[in-house]
Every structure is written in structure tokens, then in C-alpha cells.
Amino acid sequence: MVDETTNQGIPEPEGHSEVIQTDYEIGQDNIETKIGPFKIDIHNPVFVISSVMIVLFVAIALIWPEGSKETFLAVRNYVKSTFDWFFLLSANLFVLFALLLIVTPWGSVRLGGTEATPDYSYPAWFAMLFAAGMGIGLMFFGVLEPVYYFGTPWGDQPLGGELGIVDGVVADAAALEAARQMAMAATIYHWGLHPWAIYAIVGLALALFSYNKGLPLTLRSAFYPLLGERVWGAWGNAIDTIAAFATLFGLATSLGFGATQVASGLTEVFGSGVAEDGTRNFLGFLWGNADTSSDSSFLLVLIIAFITAIALVSVVRGLDGGVKVLSEINMGLAGLLLAFVFLAGPTLSILGDFFGGLVGYAKNIGPLSNPFGREDTGFLHGWTTFYWAWWISWSPFVGMFIARVSRGRTVREFVICVLLIPSLVCVFWMATFGGTAITQVIEGATESGVFQNVIASYKPEISLFAMLGELPLASITSVLAVVLVIIFFVTSSDSGSLVIDTITAGGKVDAPVSQRIFWCIFEGAVAGVLLLGAAGTAGLDSLQAMVISSGLFFTAVLLVMCFSIMRGLMSEKR
Question: Which of 4, 488, 18, 5 is nearest to 262 (CA)?
């Protein structure tokens, strides 16, 4: 990798590049001091304001649990129902803009200067892109989402389409095929081009203005063409503060989802007791019982603490020694599990779901993307609007991480590899896991474990293990799935810590390790405290409310960012 010793850790452009001439020096507003043996190098006021805002939010959720829960839920529901059109139209524009970059002459601009070379090989680059962008989500929703759309009895199936199973009875052949194709199409819609376009835009903006223009690796730098030197003042502080705030809560939400899935996996594989009797547990901690109110929030906190401890080791080792190594291990294990399910499951049906899902996606992307005159409001608000807000709130984190590992790529190469290749991998993953689960529901109806845990009773964290339980070697693959969730968990935590630290250190990528340790612990603490102190699911509701609210602000930021990218690319040599 390039030796990042100049310009506060950011490599100088190699070859020709239109560097922006500014008097601002990276870190000039930082507070540099020592507290005991720990060095501190934090941006004033971004670090202080973002930290205080996060602590204040958590304190309110703990001191006033019932009232805050109602307030946060009201905010979440209001944003989803009122601004659904804004989220959908904006996401459509992001996809169109990303595709435009591939076919225009701007695509030949090289990130880092005309002579820059990639820092990482393709396999290592793909592994880090994928692990940071979709890791925990694919494990959590890979089975859940297609099956939910295929047979949900709650009336929020996409576009009001057919159901494949009604009241435990499998539909006729025509309805079955229509329901299956729509289930895959709607899932692909949420995990394909739209989220990766969001990530690509943020990542490209950060890489362009940092590696080509010589500005700090922070969100504010992308707005220099519009704000000029004012970007180093209050406007820039506000942008970076919201970015840090949104990133932490987006990560904490994922940690909450991941913890519930790890708890379910551990209980499925190593637990004891009977769910119907309320005695199902892992090491004495109740979990997975018919009465979910008895589930132990303390178990989730212990899992988060364990994962955070592992992430700390990775954080200390840095990008190459920690995140890169874990990402490559992740991809190897994920590929192994994917290959097993593909071969042990209904292989021909999986291939049919892959190609049929792509066909259904192409046919229905217009109606699915249309925010007006929709009657399937349950699907629109409960799934699509939440997803778009979640991806956008994650975009500072994933985008900056993608920028960190993408120096030396051309814009065209960057967009193709960030947008199209991960989208196809996600489609194949969903077709394999979701398609296998749908086949199990069709063949087993109410006897299927997937039917019992997704359709009959909604237990999303069990869905993956219910599907694996009906395949050969279930005890081995379930352990592998738990390990995968944990490692995805760790890569999200440690790469997120690197990103938040960069934002709150004024764009320095070589800030003291102690700050990355602080953010790693802080992420876990926020998720753990809310899950423990706000009655588990209420804590997740609070986190989701903040994700959606911050996503609303960042949607507007990303729209402006597209214009800044055009301005920046127009001045670069192609």
C-alpha cells in the first residue's frame, strides 16, 4: 500500500491532478493533547458536539423509556409516511447518476491522479467492499425477506401481488410462480442497484476531493465547489457532525440486529430447554421462547461486549492488518456457506430464482420505484422507505470506507465494481438462501421451520437457522453461520470506528489509535445500553428512529453531492 506519511496520512496525487488551492491545512482546527498515556487529536467542534448529542440521546432513552419510545416511534412513522416520495425519487436519481458516470468521458478520470496505481488487489478490494457494505444485512434478511413477501399474511406484500401460501395452503401453480417471482424482484430491488448507487456516490465524492483535490477525507470536502472556503466553518462542521451522528446510529442498529441473530444461532446450536414451556436458553439466559418478552436483553449485551472486544483487536491492527484480513476471511467463509446451500438445496430452483428474479426486477422496477398512487403502503413504508433511509444513514460510513480502499481506480472502474458486481452477488445470495427457503415452504407448508418462524410467527432472527435446519449437516452449517455473523459484526464495528474517527479528527487518517478504540467501545456501548435499558426491542426502535431521521437529512446532502461530483470531474484530466 502507498505510504501514507504526507498531508496528514492522505497520499499526494500521482501524475496530473487539479489540486484545489486552499489555505486550510488538515487538522488545523484540531485539539492535540495527551490524557495520561493516550494521545488526543480531535476536531473542534465536530468531536465534542457529536459525542454530546449521542450521549444526550441515550440518556433521554434511558431516563424516559416509555415516553421516548412513543416519541421515537412517532418520529419514525411520520418520516416514513410523509417523506416516502422524497426517499424514492432521490434513490432513483442516484442510480441514474451512477450509471451516467459509467458511460460518460468522466469515467476515465483516475482517483489519485493520472499515474496512481491501486492500493489493493481485486480480491482484497471486493472482499472489503462487500463486508463493509452488506455483511450483517445479508445474513439477517437473506431468508427472511423473500419468504416474507412470498407468504406474509399481514397484507403488505409488494405491489399488492399474489401470495404463494394462504392460511397454510399452497396456492395454485400460476399464483405460486407469480408470488415467487415478485418476492425475488422486491428483494433484489432493496439489495441491488439502489443501495450500492448510494454508497458509490458518497465513496466517489470523498475519494475524488481527497485523493485528486488534496482536501481532507471528510464529508465537508465534497462541498468545496459550492461553499468554497466557507466549508471549513460552520457549514462544514454541521455536515461532519451529522455524518458522525448518523454513522454511529446506523452501526448501532446493525449491531442490535446482529446481536439478536447471534443469540438465536447460539441458542439453536448450543441451547437447551423447550420454547413452548418458556425454558429455552443459552447458558442460562432465556432466549428463543414462544413468549419473546422473556428473552434476555442481558444476553444481547454480553454478545455485543464480546464482539466489541474482538473488534478492538482489529482496530489496533489497523486497515491492512485488521479489516482487510477479516474481510478476506469473511468472504471465504461466506463463499463456502453459499456454495453449500446452492449444492445441497434445490439447485435448479435457485438458478430459476436468480434469473427469474432478475426478469421480475426488470419488469417491476418502475412500479416498485414509483412513490405516487401506491396502495401497498405497508410494503412502501415498512420496507422500502426504511431501507433507503438506512442505506443513506450508512452512506458516510460505507462511502468513506470505500474511498479509503479505492485509490488508484478509474471512476468507471470504481462505479462498475461498486455498483454492478456487488449487486449481482447480492442477487445470487438472495436467490440461494431465499429461494431455498421458499422451496421448503412450498414442499413442507405449515410443517416447514421457515413457515413457522417467518409466516406463522414473525421471528426474523431465527429464519436463517430454520432454513439451514432442513438441509444436511445442519449442526455444522449453523455453527458456520454464527461465526459468519460474528465476523461480519466485527468488520462493521472496526471499519466503522476507523471512519467515525477520521470524520471527528478533521479528515486525518493517521489519528491516534486510542481514538479509534474510543469509538469502537462507544458504538458497542450505545447499542448495549439501549438494548439493556430500553427493554431490548424498544431500544432497537429508538435506534431505527434516529437512522430514519438522519437519513432524511442526508438524502438532501447526497443530492447536492452529485452536483459537486460533476463540478469536480469536469476539471480533471481524463
Answer: 488
Q: Phi and psi for 71 in degrees, rounded to 5?
A: -65, -45
Structure pTM?
A: 0.89
Those residues whose C-beta lies under 8 Å from the C-beta of residue 402, and which sit 6 or more positions away, are 129, 132, 133, 199, 200, 202, 203, 207, 418
Angle at 93 between CA 555 and CA 571, to 5 degrees: 90
The cell numbers describing 320, all together, are 491492512
Position 52, amino acid? V
Q: Which of 358, 414, 425, 377 is nearest to 185 (CA)?
A: 358
Q: Which amino acid is at 454?
A: V
pLDDT tens digits in sequence order for the chain, 574 residues long: 333 334 455 778 887 778 888 888 878 888 888 887 778 888 888 988 888 888 887 787 777 777 777 787 788 888 888 999 999 999 999 999 999 999 999 999 999 888 888 888 888 787 777 666 566 778 889 999 999 999 987 778 899 888 898 888 888 889 999 999 999 999 999 999 999 999 999 999 999 999 999 888 889 999 999 999 999 999 999 999 888 887 887 777 777 777 888 888 888 888 888 878 888 888 888 887 777 777 777 888 888 888 888 888 877 776 666 666 777 787 788 889 999 999 999 999 999 999 999 999 999 999 999 999 898 888 998 899 988 988 888 888 788 888 888 899 999 999 998 888 888 888 999 999 999 999 999 998 888 999 998 998 888 888 999 999 999 999 899 999 988 888 887 877 777 788 888 888 888 877 788 888 888 888 888 777 777 655 445 556 666 777 777 788 889 989 999 999 999 998 876 6
Relative orientation angle of helices 421-444 and 325-344, to the nearest 10 degrees: 40
Which segments of 109-187 are extended strands (E)? Answer: 165-166, 169-170
Helices (H), 449-473: 449-450, 463-468
The alpha carbon of residue 297 and the mean position of all alpha carbons in its chain are separated, in whole angstroms, by: 23
Burial 115-136 (b: 16+ CB within 10 A, else e): ebebbbeeebbbbbbbbbbbbb
